[in-house]
Amino acid sequence: MAEQPYDINLDVKFDQLERIDVGAEAAAVEPWFNQTLTQVNDAVVRLGVVEGEFHWHKHEAEDEFFLVLEGQLDIDVEDAGTIVLGPNQGVTIPRGVVHRPRAPERTVIVMVEPATVVPTGSD
Asked: What domain count does the chain have?
């Protein structure tokens, strides 16, 4: 699988007290898509729609949480194998851990991470 182009939108799309229909947001886009949905204190909640593989990378200063809503997300972790997530399953990748997300099919995920994180990683 080749690395996919990634449409990253860091703007906060929904204000506090505004209802978010994650399913409708996901249905309206194609892989690879990343949209910051809302901000909660110093963290953001991001929607990802992915298919194929992303590059190996890490986040030096931030942990990130992945929750699969639809599909399957495989996260290769350097020197630790692959974490396979199905619907309603999640995992936190600690800061500094080199990883590569892959999706064998169209997959919808929600990520929670500090607002300072660069989605493409620090390397």
From this structure: 1
